Amino acid sequence: SNPDYKLYSFDDSIGICYNYKDISARDICTALYEKSELMVGYGSFQGTEFIRFVTINYGNDEADILRYFKQVEEFVEKEM
């Protein structure tokens, strides 16, 4: 329900596919990697590119997932 995000995945998916603030998924993922912030991938489907955050890691809980999104948001605000 955040207007900065566009969600492409479906309920009960093991991955969250999304775009953030209309910034290229490739640019965000590359910058996060190059600045040693996070390692997250991107993909495309039917010509739409998006960030792919896989949530299947056994150790992740809701707080970890929310922390991930907060880290992405803060990074984009500061670096992009």
Number of spatially distinct domains: 1
Describe the strand arrangement of the main beta sheet, using strand numbers. Answer: 1-2-4-3
**Helix content, binned percent:** 25-40%
Oligomer category: single chain
Mean pLDDT: 94
CATH topology name, in short, is Aspartate Aminotransferase, domain 1
Shape: globular
- Uncertain spans, ≥5 residues at pLDDT below 50? none
Tell me the major beta sheet: 4 strands, antiparallel
Count of distinct strands: 4
What is the CATH superfamily? Aspartate Aminotransferase, domain 1
* Alpha-carbon Rg, integer: 12 Å
Distance between the termini: 23 Å
> How much beta, percentage-wise?
25-35%
CATH class: Alpha Beta
Reading the helices and strands in chain order gives EEHEEH
Continuous helix count: 2
Provide a descriptive summary of the structure in words.
With 80 residues, this protein is α+β, with helices and mostly antiparallel strands. The protein has a single domain (5-79), classed as Aspartate Aminotransferase, domain 1 (Alpha-Beta Complex). The protein has two helices and four strands. The protein has helices at 25-34, 62-79; strands at residues 5-7, 15-20, 41-45, 48-54. A four-stranded antiparallel sheet has the order 1-2-4-3, with helices on one face. The two termini are 23 Å apart. The model has no long low-confidence stretch (mean pLDDT 94).
